[in-house]
Amino acid sequence: MSSYAFDTYRLLTPPEAAEWARTRLSLFSPGAALEATEIGDGNLNYIFRIVDPATKASVVLKQSGDTARISDEFKVSPDRNRIEHQILVRYNELVPGLVPRVYAFDPVLNLTAMEDLSDHVILRQGWLAGGSFPRAADDLAEFAARTLVATSDGVIDPKVKKALVRDFINPDLCEITEDLVFTEPFDDLRSRNDILPALKPFVEKELYGDQRLRLEVAKLKAGFLSGPQALIHGDYHTGSVFVRPDSTKVIDPEFAFFGPAGFDLGALAANAAFAFLSARAGGRANEAGDFLVRLIDRFVQRWDQLWATSVTDPSFRVPGYALWHRNQVLADASGSAGLELCRRTVGIAHVKDLTSIADLQRRLRAERASLRLGKALIFDRGRVRTGDDYFRLLRRAAGREGLD
Amino acid sequence: MSSYAFDTYRLLTPPEAAEWARTRLSLFSPGAALEATEIGDGNLNYIFRIVDPATKASVVLKQSGDTARISDEFKVSPDRNRIEHQILVRYNELVPGLVPRVYAFDPVLNLTAMEDLSDHVILRQGWLAGGSFPRAADDLAEFAARTLVATSDGVIDPKVKKALVRDFINPDLCEITEDLVFTEPFDDLRSRNDILPALKPFVEKELYGDQRLRLEVAKLKAGFLSGPQALIHGDYHTGSVFVRPDSTKVIDPEFAFFGPAGFDLGALAANAAFAFLSARAGGRANEAGDFLVRLIDRFVQRWDQLWATSVTDPSFRVPGYALWHRNQVLADASGSAGLELCRRTVGIAHVKDLTSIADLQRRLRAERASLRLGKALIFDRGRVRTGDDYFRLLRRAAGREGLD
Hints:
Two copies of one chain form a homodimer.
Chain A: H1 14-24, E1 35-38, E2 45-51, E3 58-64, H2 79-94, E4 102-106, E5 111-114, E6 121-122, H3 123-128, H4 136-150, H5 158-167, H6 171-180, H7 200-208, H8 211-225, E7 230-232, E8 241-244, E9 247-250, E10 257-259, H9 263-281, H10 288-310, H11 321-346, H12 352-355, H13 360-379, H14 387-400
Antiparallel strand pairs in A: 1-2, 2-3, 3-5, 4-5, 6-8, 7-10, 8-9
């Protein structure tokens, strides 16, 4: 017997979330006494975990509000929940097993019900805790290569693509990326950056004061604003990945839209570099460096294989095109990695890899190394194509700060 | 007293068109005895001219069917009429005086009522008849620079742009361009090309057989499929321009969508080259060469001026970006000019400039010169930036065929 009506939008309380799950999902019996907890710790949304203690059956409900959880300043349309549901359905077709299964979508409540992954950990946290996830690099390379190639020009039918471009136009979430990734780290006009005081002089000289860098960033921004090459995840970092040693699940695709095909790979590569620098700053070893090399090389290998077997448009089968296009994608990946390294170090949204470095001097060195690496990846992006290219630049930046 | 109902879609007869105009437009008095003629000679649509003999008031109605007029093979959504109406309204704001005024739009009949331009001639025909249109180059450079800059990243608000991108997604008309401009001229897989028998060996060697050319064309095609830089006209040639010596009006923007900002300028430049080659082949002089030089140089001048005063996003004000971006646009313009020269010479849709050359040998030479120029503009596109650059390549191609 339902005691709630769900016919108008509101943010749910845990008991309401349990009631929604009991009445809407076949997972639970009509009389089940469900337990519900709000477990969200992200920047934008509310996450309810619903468990039936009798059967151990469980589910996660993700609900969007109309402002970001992190700050009322970010107005973000709850339509992102529709986008997330729609792309999760598509990912379940393209890369089954690498994303949570989806059970239901409620367009009134802006709520998606999906597989409970509580037996996984977030990759960023897993690495910080010293964990090892031997499948992650291959799985995440596979995820990127497969989703990107499948939605690229020459593979996807042009009319199907245009319809998808329309469905995935994502103004609010793109605005966040345009501002936080492509603009503010290089020009503190809005004074929202959040920088260690001791890092400020470095940032003022090396980011705000470097006109050559800002020119390259402007070119990358133009590509982001006008480069719908493939349906990208849009927020593909180590906080958007659930792992177990034997399982990898990509979550949180609410930033998805048609954008530069290299963007996702670059963001993830940058976050592996954060994990590497964090471990070095803490005097620990971890697998993030190996992950980075393997991620890039495996991506290139799988991209080339998938491209060769997937291209249907004869225009794009001309000799030389596959290599030219893939290298453009890799250049964008390197540029995007550089942007992510800069923005997570000086912008409004930091990463725990850096902020958790207890020793201030060591944190400062790791942050300077991030920025040095970021700049190198942006400037050299036309030549950064292999795992070794990334790792060489990463070690050089770490070395200059005494973190090698 | 209306004898027709206009509540369901159908192609109108001339008397029905007159009745629609009399009852829907304030231009005509309720009792007016209007005269209606179908005057369309384009590839896609039906055009009615409605005149009140008593007052001389007149109007043009443009109605879209659901197949192209040129051939049932091209299924084209009548939604293009909505797109044409919507962009004409926008053009009337951006470049008033350079497009027909718009009086009404009927979404049921897919019909737009607009200014009657019967006192103008189509620029292509005007030149073939030896006319001179001294305003045309400046007006058409102004039209292109103003409409393109106003809808470019850095000038237009990103969210406004995304909404417009969505409104102007134009699958059917883009498919025509993708097939006829970017694909078929370089690869006769669908056997729709229409080539003078004597030209065939040249086409087989120089277009179908040139893998280097086809690689460059594939790169341009990728840019067209994934380069929403600005709201482009999409069919900007001398058949889409009405002129008098003292007036220029751009018509037929039904191919409009967000695409590469250089596309329009290139298409128009190519059509000026056709007029030049046509005159040379006929032993006549005309102003198309001067037009071409003036069009390009004036466009660059106006683009630079408008860009400098219009850019609002600080990211794009960094030193070096304006020049880098403009030169990218000019490279795309050169590439697009090259594509247009090839496709109008060998593809399904020819231009009267070439087909009206009576002497077969001279026509053949003009067509070979078109293809030579087209290839040069594609290969050299990174260096073609001034009116003189275009004219030098045009004279060289003409010279190699004895048409200088």
